[in-house]
Amino acid sequence: MVGVVKQPAADRLSDTLGRPLRDLRISVTDRCNFRCPYCMPAEVFGRDFRFLERSQLLTFEEVARVVRVAAGLGVRKVRLTGGEPLLRRNLERLVAMIAEVEGVDDVALTTNGVLLAGKAKALRGAGLSRVTVSLDSLDDATFRTMNGVDFSPAPVLEGIAAAQRAGLSPIKLNTVVKRGVNEDSVIELARYARRNGCVLRVIEYMDVGASNGWRLDDVVPAAEVMSRIDAQMPLEPLDPQYRGEVARRYRYRDGGGEVGFIASVTQPFCGDCTRARLAADGVLHTCLFATAGHDLRPLLRGDGSDAELEQALRGIWSARGDRYSELRSAATAGLRKVEMSYIGG
Question: Which of 83, 246, 259, 305 is least enclosed, having the fewest CB within 10 Å?
C-alpha cells in the first residue's frame, strides 16, 4: 500500500468556490434508538425499515484509512455521528485510531446522550476531544414527543453529567427548534446550559432528507429565538473562532457563558462550508442536503492504494460547488435528498 503523500500548505485542496477541506463528519451507523420527527419519523423508519447490513458498514480500519488520507489533504477536525453513534459497538476503539492520525487535532462526537453515561470515561480515555448532545427540551412531555419513542430526558442528563466528570467539557447542547412544538423550551434550556457550564446551540429546523415533512412555516428563525433569550439574559456577539464555523456565537453580557445559533434556512453559511460527510457504508457526500454521493468502497475493499484514494478525494472535493442553503426554494426542498440518519447531521 502506498503511503499518503503530505501536501505543502500551498497545495492544500479547495473546491470550485475556494473552500478548503477541513472537517470530516463520519456516520458510523444509520440506526438510532430515537425516532425524532425532524430526522427519523417513526412512520417511515418503522419495524419494516431496512437498515444497512453489518457487512455494508465500513470497518474501523477502513474509516481510519479514509481519515488518514483526508488528513493529508487538510482535514483537521473529525466528528463521529450516526444515526446514534453509540449504538456502534466498541466505538472507543475507532476514536483511539482516529486520535492517532497525524494532522487530526480534534475528535468529536454527536450523540443523543442516552448511552453516554456508560461510555463517557472510555471515550475520553481513547482520545475524544469533545461531545455534543442533542437535547430538544427539558420538559418531559415535550422531550418524549420530540424523540418519538417516549424517552424521558433523565438518561440524557445523566450522560451529560458523566461526560463532564470524564473531562469532556464544555459540552455543546444541540436544540432543533420546530414551530408549535418546542420553541417555548429554549429559555429553560439556556438557563440549564449556563448553570451547568454547557454551550447551547440553537438549530433551525431544516429540510434534510425527504421524510420529515418539512415546511417553511415550521421554522422558527434563529433571530426570533435569539431575541427571546436576549430579553431574559442579555447577549452580545462574539467573533468567529475559525473559517467555516457554522454557529453565530453570542456571550451573555454578565459573563455567564455563551450560546450559538445555526441558521441554515434564514442565514445560509454555504460560502464558508469546509465539511465533507462519510456515510456508514463508505459513500462520501459534499453537502448535508446532497441527493447523491461518491462510493469509496471499491477503493477501500478492492486493490486501491492510498494514493488512488487520495486522488479520488481530490477529484470529488475540487469539483464541489454545493451551496444548497443559498439556493433553497420550494423546488429544491422537494428533492429526494439523502436522509440525515444516513449521512450524519
Answer: 305
In whole angstroms, how large is the CA radius of gyration of the chain? Answer: 19
Total domains present in the chain: 1
What is the torsional sign of CA 106, 112, 115, 120?
positive
Q: Is residue 28 part of a domain?
A: yes
Beta strands in the chain (DSSP E): 23-27, 77-81, 106-111, 130-134, 172-177, 199-204, 235-237, 248-252, 258-262, 275-278, 283-285, 294-295
Question: By the 8 A CB rule, do 294 and 343 touch?
Answer: no
320-to-14, 238, 286, 323 alpha-carbon distances in Å: 9, 30, 7, 9
Please name the helix (run of DSSP H) or strand (run of DSSP E) that holds residue 104, with its range, or none. Answer: none
Cis peptide bond N-terminal to 41, omega within 30? no
Average pLDDT over every residue of 84-96:
98
Q: How far is CA 74 from CA 69, 146, 314, in A?
A: 9, 37, 11
- Indicate whether 4 belongs to any domain: no
Nearest to 218 by CA among 230, 207, 202: 207
Tell me the per-residue pLDDT of 264-289, one tens digit each, with 9 for 90 and over: 889 888 889 999 999 999 999 998 88
pLDDT digits (tens, 9 = 90+) for 120-140: 999 999 999 999 999 999 999
User: Residue 332's domain spans which residues?
Assistant: 9-343
CATH number at residue 277: 3.20.20.70
Residue 180 cell numbers, joined: 408549535
Report if residue 2 sits inside a domain. no
